[in-house]
Write a structure and sequence with these properties.
alpha+beta, two-stranded antiparallel sheet, 127 residues, 28% helix, 6 strands, globular
């Protein structure tokens, strides 16, 4: 019913060579829409909420939370405008990219591996 030309939901498990395991859940169904990031580590965790632009860090040692709020006057759209400005500066040769071509290629390899894994009924696929 969404009438979109992309996956309407995805549940992705990634295992990186360095030992990190990542779980990604994406969906266009959830109402109200939410966008957040959780990073869980041995020594604590980080939770970021797009709606509030706030991050919360939990420290296992000391068992306490630290809240980090967006700076006063923060406007989310400024991030996108800054990104476009940075891209133009790269094209003009004024600055170097913060993300290399190899970074982009590796991200695309991961996406293609996810698609191959899905097509092959959840089999582990190397990028």
């Amino acid at each position: 019913s969404l009438e979109i030309d992309t996956e309407d939901s995805a549940h992705i498990l990634l295992r990186f060579r360095g030992g990190a395991n990542v779980s990604v859940h994406l969906d266009y169904y959830q109402r109200p829409a939410t966008h957040h990031l959780s990073i869980v580590c041995e020594q604590g965790s980080v939770y970021w909420d797009n709606a509030t632009s706030e991050a919360a860090i939990y420290y296992a040692e000391g068992q306490h939370w630290q809240s980090i709020k967006a700076p006063q006057g923060f406007e989310r759209n400024s991030m996108f405008l800054d990104e476009m400005k940075h891209f133009i500066e790269i094209c003009q040769g004024d600055v170097h990219s913060q993300c290399s071509l190899e970074d982009g290629i590796q991200a695309q390899r991961i996406v293609l591996a996810v698609h191959r894994s899905s097509a092959e009924e959840g089999r582990l696929v190397e990028p």
